[in-house]
Amino acid sequence: MPYFDNAATSFPKPEEVYREVEKYLRVYGANPGRSGHKMALQAGRVIFETRELLAKLFHIDDPMQVIFTSNATAALNLAIKGYLKRGDHVLLTSMEHNSVIRPIKALENMGVEHTIVTCAKDGALNPEDMEKALKSNSKMIISTHASNVTGTLMPVQEIGTISQKNHLAFLLDASQTAGVYDLDVNAMNIDMMAFPGHKSLLGPQGTGGLYIRKGLELCEMIQGGTGSKSDRIVQPEMMPDRYESGTLNTPGIAGLGAGIKFILRQGMDEIRHHESDLTNYLLEKLAEIKKVDVYGPMNTLKQAPVVSLNIRGMDSSEVAYELDSKYDIAVRPGLHCAPLAHETIGTLEQGTVRFSIGYFNTKENVDQAVNALYSICRG
Amino acid sequence: MPYFDNAATSFPKPEEVYREVEKYLRVYGANPGRSGHKMALQAGRVIFETRELLAKLFHIDDPMQVIFTSNATAALNLAIKGYLKRGDHVLLTSMEHNSVIRPIKALENMGVEHTIVTCAKDGALNPEDMEKALKSNSKMIISTHASNVTGTLMPVQEIGTISQKNHLAFLLDASQTAGVYDLDVNAMNIDMMAFPGHKSLLGPQGTGGLYIRKGLELCEMIQGGTGSKSDRIVQPEMMPDRYESGTLNTPGIAGLGAGIKFILRQGMDEIRHHESDLTNYLLEKLAEIKKVDVYGPMNTLKQAPVVSLNIRGMDSSEVAYELDSKYDIAVRPGLHCAPLAHETIGTLEQGTVRFSIGYFNTKENVDQAVNALYSICRG
After folding, report:
1. B316 in contact with A, Cβ within 8 Å
2. Signal peptide position in this chain (chains A, B) (predicted)?
3. Is some CB atom of chain B closer than 8 A to the CB atom of A26?
4. Which long-range contacts (CB under 8 A, 24 or more apart) does A264-268 make?
5. Do B1 and A26 touch (CB under 8 A)?
6. Which domains, and CATH codes, for chain B?
7. CA distance B136 to chain A (A)
8. CA distances in angstroms from A367 to A173, A306, A374, listed in the order given
9. Catalytic residues of B, which ones?
10. What residues of A are in contact with residue B338 (Cβ under 8 Å)?
11. A43 vs A238, A259, B200, B316, CA distance in Å?
């Protein structure tokens, strides 16, 4: 089955990810950071190793500034609600996912203001528009690195500069790019960065995390057992324990570590070039199909490997259903949990058919998809 | 290695749990509830099947009232913070884990009052003490089903009755009992019940959940993509989506389903009797070692399979270290993230050495442990 739903979760994972999850479950198996026996220590080492690998990948000085969450949504919620206070103002782009917009809407009722900066029809953000929307009580800028609808890459460097110049916290949602695009939290002035473990980082579902710049204090959302300062009935303030209450998804984190090792071995550039080449090829082929409308930049220099399209006169769900049932091709139709992005690109009514490409996709997969689209267009 | 740390996480898991996690990762792999292609639908079915199995196990009428969380701590935080409001009063026992006490302490700053009802030295709660502590603004009672330090079983039925009579919400922390003790949310008047997936339910780490009685509305802690009502920028109110934003730990939930099927096949009574018999045997043997102090009821009718002890004159960490390094026996020393419980039983200084028994422990394991303790006592 050609799988083009990598923006939801990557599939397949590298063989070593499966093996590492199984090894963890069968061999180490214990609870890290609690008991101190051999198995628990081994589990703790697995966690720490993955933290180190993430720090290496994102150029983070201290691995303890990376905390594990169950997914990027949990990380974004923690960053947003842990940082913003009543009376604050926050800026975000109109291409954000509901995992940013819904928490921001929830904070509205608690006196946190926001401005949604509208992007162009291809999803591009003009950094000047962001700067113009600043207010005296602005405290934070939130941007996705790449839209999950159109793949549009955001001007992260420019946003980082604006944010630094104006003493704001910059929260990057790296859901569609972590593992494929180079992310350097210092060079890009990123203060917090949320990432899923199960997309381009190639780990299992149930993993994700948040980088928090040293010195930045968030109000933790969850308190509980941390295995540290067990004599205290208030949450400890040390990193990363403060934000990691309860038993972590250790088998998942073990698998995530294996995914990152795979990335480092293959080389992120090689992975990105492969995905980008296939995206280019898909875009070229799509341009030849008359009834197909493609959204976004249609240019892999400006776009992560995500392509949204529609067949004129057909509902996106109908197209996806045919791709799945007749051609065994997995894509995602609809609104992709990003209604404002669809408003921006003009597809709030019908949604889009989204092809999201991963490292294990092949040119043959793209050919199969294009041929299937031709057939569907012919009806 | 005799593994006696099952109260932290059960080990090993049944063979079918390993296999189901691997099968999910290798074969279904997709994101449930989002895309609608075959793999995504299969993933959705896995999630729903586990929800149904949990509903069956806990006598819950509608599986949609079970929501998945990353662990019991996240479930407890959601139940506590989602339900209690400024001006409310909540009652809890002195045997609660920090996953209850720390959120309650955090709410104190937000104007939520609490009373900690002190238990007896063996951890037992007198339900009358709970009733006496009620106030006109009391809104909730929280109790663990069994202490994670002493195993002491709490009078759940009586607490349920008090709670119903006084129109309070009853939140049960079933961390140490779900999967071993019969839990009937209706018969026991339980309004919310938090459970880990990776302890006696025999699933992988990274799983847990919360039962929420129908009609009970919690303020959700996390907003984000739910795959439902994607056109809306506010969180949908439908169950279980409202409380399950972001990608779930689907491989973990698949494994959890396999764990529950194992329990249903073996029979929960058979599992409980096995664990209880071993606990009894351990308690009998411990009573013969002069230098060993055992805490808790020392009676398996009143105690889940958790035994805390100390060797007089030795620190609990020292004993655990010897058990691990010389005898390859895994236990947990220290305060077990429950400082008030240790205050209650008088071990706040030295902690305890905790033996927690699981279904895969054997009589030989107990003999090994007892022999090791004899040797350590002899120095």
Report:
1. no
2. none
3. yes
4. A264/A53, A264/A56, A264/A57, A266/A359, A268/A57, A268/A179, A268/A180, A268/A181, A268/A182
5. no
6. 15-265 (3.40.640.10), 268-378 (3.90.1150.10)
7. 26
8. 31, 16, 11
9. 337
10. 230
11. 20, 17, 19, 21
Find residue A356's DSSP bridge partners: A5, A306
- For residue A128, CA distances in Å to A125, A133, A136 come to 9, 9, 17
Burial group, residue A301, by CB count within 10 angstroms (0-12, 13-18, 19+): exposed
Residue A92 has a pLDDT of 98
Closest Cα to residue A96, out of A74, A81, A76, A82? Answer: A76
Looking at chain A, which residue has its C-alpha nearest residue B207? A249
* Dihedral angle sign, alpha carbons of residues A29, A34, A35, A39: positive
At B310 the three-state DSSP class reads strand
Report ipTM for this prediction. 0.97
Distances (CA, A) of B33 to A79, B41, B186, B250: 25, 7, 29, 11
Report the gap between the CA of A170 and the closest CA in chain B (Å). 19
Does A332 contact chain B (CB < 8 Å)?
yes
Dist CA B102 CA A28 (whole Å): 29
* B169-178: pLDDT as tens digits: 999 999 999 9
Structure tokens at A257: 């570590």
Question: Would the CB atoms of A224 and B336 count as touching at under 8 Å?
Answer: no
C-alpha–C-alpha distance, residues A14 and A371, integer Å? 28
Strand partners, A116: A92
Q: Do B31 and A13 touch (CB under 8 A)?
A: no
Q: What is the pLDDT of residue B215?
A: 95
Under-70 pLDDT residues of chain A? 34
DSSP state for residue B240 in the 8-state scheme: T
Q: Kindly state whether A252 is in contact with chain B, defined as any CB-CB distance less than 8 angstroms.
A: yes
Question: Which tokens go with A282?
Answer: 């898909």
Are residues A250 and B205, on separate chains, in Cβ contact within 8 Å? yes
Q: Which of B26, B73, B247 sits opposite A198 (nearest CB)?
A: B247
Q: Mean pLDDT for chain B?
A: 96
Give B234's contacts in chain A (Cβ within 8 Å): 102, 105-106
